[in-house]
Amino acid sequence: MKRVENKVVVVTGGALGIGRATCLLLAKEGAKVAITDLLDKEGQELADKITKSGGTVKFWHLDVTNEKEVEKVYGNVVKEFGKLDATVNNAGIAGADKPTDELTENEWDTVMNVNVKGVFFCTKHAIPHMRKSGGGSIINLSSIYGLIGAGDIPHYHASKGAVRLMSKNDALIYAKDNIRVNSVHPGFIWTPLVDELGKNNPGFRKQLDSRHPIGHIGEPIDIAYGILYLVSDESKFVTGSELVIDGGYTCQ
Ligand code: NAP
């Protein structure tokens, strides 16, 4: 028996980075995975790759800031796979790295819309399907930046702090429905998001490595294994918790 055999899981922002590694691992462990993303080409390529290796997946275009689209895609996933067991609210953006007094309202809203409102919409439209399935697991990607300040990207910190507390409060609201809600807090993980943050700084990778007591930044698979645990029934008593996977970053 595989670890998440026959569980139906939606992954947002599933085409790249942490989301991609999560889709690959969940499918390998027996889940039926709805890969969703803005990136149609990358998402479809990933779906084809997993299908070829014997996994059960389908790609849907989904912008998590569009409530109508979120509602429709969750409905279509349930039509396709018959139920919903888990949603991994992974889609996220970093935004412009500027101090608070230089940020525009638009820059603030853009990050909040994806990182906070996106989690709200996906949670809202996952809940009715999970109730019908008799329970479920909601996994929200926060960050070490949702736990401590690092003195940069203020709107990203605000968004990830919000996700942390939304997760705890939703854990209380939905415990009676057997729906668990947890947040995951990665340290720096080498993905297109982090690559973009360091694009004008050649020493960026080394600087990041040195900030993690374990000596290096993480890989997407390090986070995917944590998410796999939270999707699986191995974590059936875990709700409202913060799974920190950061090479010791926040111990300091
Ligand atoms: P990534 O490599 O940029 O992948 C994120 C994916 O989400 C991309 O495919 C992106 O598409 C997609 N996306 C962006 N906006 C979206 C929207 N409105 N609707 C649907 N999909 C959207 O990011 P990652 O590094 O894997 O990060 C995944 C999550 O982990 C994020 O929530 C991030 O904040 C969190 N996290 C990451 C790190 C890290 O070091 N990498 C650390 C802590 C937390 P586009 O490329 O078109 O934008």
Could you write a compact summary of the structure shown?
The protein is of the alpha/beta class and 252 residues long. The protein is built from eight helices and seven strands. A seven-stranded parallel sheet has the order 3-2-1-4-5-6-7, sandwiched between helices.
Pick out its properties.
252 residues, alpha/beta, Rossmann fold, 8 helices, 7 strands, 46% helix, binds NADP nicotinamide-adenine-dinucleotide phosphate
What is the top-level CATH class? Alpha Beta
Structural class: alpha/beta
Give the overall shape, derived from the CA principal axes. globular
CATH architecture title: 3-Layer(aba) Sandwich
Looking across the biggest beta sheet, what order are the strands in? 3-2-1-4-5-6-7
Q: Look up the CATH topology.
A: Rossmann fold
Mean pLDDT: 97
| Parts with pLDDT < 50 across at least 5 consecutive residues | none
> How much helical structure, as a percent, in the residues?
40-55%
> Which ligands occur here?
NADP nicotinamide-adenine-dinucleotide phosphate
Largest sheet: 7 strands, parallel
Total strands: the figure is: 7
Euclidean distance between termini CA atoms: 40 Å
Order of helices and strands: EHEHEHEHEHEHHHE
Instruction: Work out the count of structural domains.
Output: 1
Explain this structure.
- There is one protein chain.
- This protein is of the alpha/beta class and 252 residues long.
- The chain has one domain (8-191, 220-244): NAD(P)-binding Rossmann-like Domain (Rossmann fold), CATH 3.40.50.
- Helices cover 46% and strands 15% of the residues.
- The protein is built from eight helices and seven strands.
- The chain has helices at 17-28, 40-52, 67-81, 105-133, 154-174, 192-197, 204-211, 220-231, and strands at residues 8-11, 32-37, 56-61, 86-89, 136-141, 179-186, 242-245.
- A seven-stranded parallel sheet has the order 3-2-1-4-5-6-7, with helices on both faces.
- α1 (17-28) packs across α8, α3 (67-81) packs parallel to α4 and α4 (105-133) runs parallel beside α5.
- NADP nicotinamide-adenine-dinucleotide phosphate binds next to α1, α4 and α6.
- Residues 12-13, 15-19, 37-39, 62-65, 90-93, 114, 118, 141, 143, 186, 188-189, 191-194 line the site of NADP nicotinamide-adenine-dinucleotide phosphate.
